[in-house]
Design brief:
This protein has 332 residues and is α+β, with helices and mostly antiparallel strands. It contains nine helices and 17 strands. A hairpin with a 4-residue loop joins strand 11 and strand 12.
Length: 332
């Protein structure tokens, strides 16, 4: 199969001559969906992209009629990565397992400035914990003796806060009255029940300290790769993020870590663990670039067979997108 792929790429090389180059901002720390060869942003390998969504774009690039090439640019800071095509004129696409949410389409003035493609994959949320956390099965089992790590602005953070009843819901995000929000400058704000997790005043939050011991402590990190050592060394007790990333870490931990509290807020709360609904990841592009949007949707739909080919299939066969690209000569 490897030889067939090489031959295919050679035969299709002529299409690169007329191909348009697109710049892609990718999140560097979401293995296995989107990550850098070297997570150190000063490294020469930082912009070498790997993962599920990267392979999807590379398969699009290889298709004979796509006339598209992609140059990848690693991004270490998660917050607002979805707005990069709007804030940086050089960037055409933002990706990194980014969940589709209406608020992510808007700039600070609440005006829509980016658009999203069809889904690239789907997943649930979860907690990654040490294997000795045998008494934790759901978020309701957490209390102030547990410190949960999260990256600011991720759906992993928002879903964990909602599931733990620290915020009212995903839409409003009102923080429970009495919870103290600690900021980077060491100042703090105590929520009166009307303070939203989306409030710009707490964009630099570093911790959420509960007033009641029936809620966990939340500690914030800038990037996901720094949370794993913190969990290993006991500085935190759990990591709130997507199931796919947490499962990969657990599977390679020699039994040190386990995945708990698997859920999706697409499901009714009382069925959040058993429900099969998942959240959708998408690419973000400039709102006005309808031509790019249409092309990406066309190829994403084909390569994923309208969502039937997903992460689990790619995990079993990392060449699945390239193999599907080889089967088609012209989609337009």
């Amino acid at each position: 199969m490897f030889i067939r792929i090489i031959i295919f790429l050679i035969l299709c090389s002529s299409h690169f001559i007329n191909a348009k180059e697109y710049n892609v901002a990718f999140y560097s720390d979401f293995e296995p969906i989107s990550y850098s060869e070297d997570r150190d942003s000063s490294s020469a390998q930082f912009n070498q992209a790997k993962g599920y969504e990267v392979d999807l774009l590379k398969a699009i690039e290889a298709m004979p009629d796509s006339e598209m090439t992609f140059t990848f640019h690693g991004v270490k800071e998660w917050n607002n990565i979805w707005l990069t095509p709007y804030t940086n004129p050089e960037i055409d696409i933002a990706m990194g397992g980014i969940t589709r949410e209406d608020r992510r389409l808007l700039n600070a003035e609440q005006k829509q400035v980016v658009a999203t493609t069809h889904r690239t994959t789907q997943f649930k949320q979860s907690l990654l914990m040490r294997s000795d956390s045998t008494n934790i099965n759901t978020h309701e089992d957490l209390n102030c003796s547990y410190v949960i790590g999260a990256v600011r602005g991720t759906t992993g953070e928002y879903r964990y806060l909602a599931q733990s009843n620290i915020i009212s819901n995903i839409d409003d995000g009102f923080i429970l009255e009495g919870i103290t929000v600690v900021l980077e400058n060491k100042e703090y704000i105590i929520s009166d029940g009307s303070l939203s997790i989306y409030d710009p005043r707490i964009e630099t939050r570093t911790m959420l300290l509960p007033f009641y011991c029936t809620f966990p402590i939340t500690k914030y990190f800038i990037a996901e790769d720094s949370m794993i050592p913190a969990l290993k060394d006991g500085y935190i007790d759990g990591i709130a993020r997507g199931y796919i990333g947490n499962k990969l870490v657990a599977d390679n931990s020699n039994g040190e870590f386990v995945v708990k509290a698997i859920y999706s807020l697409e499901c009714p709360r009382q069925e959040s663990i058993s429900c099969s609904l998942k959240e959708e990841a998408v690419f973000f592009i400039k709102l006005e670039d309808q031509k790019l949007l249409n092309k990406l949707n066309l190829y994403i739909d084909y390569l994923t067979d309208h969502g039937l080919v997903d992460y689990d299939d790619w995990k079993l066969n990392k060449n699945i997108f390239m193999e599907r690209a080889m089967l088609i000569q012209n989609l337009r």
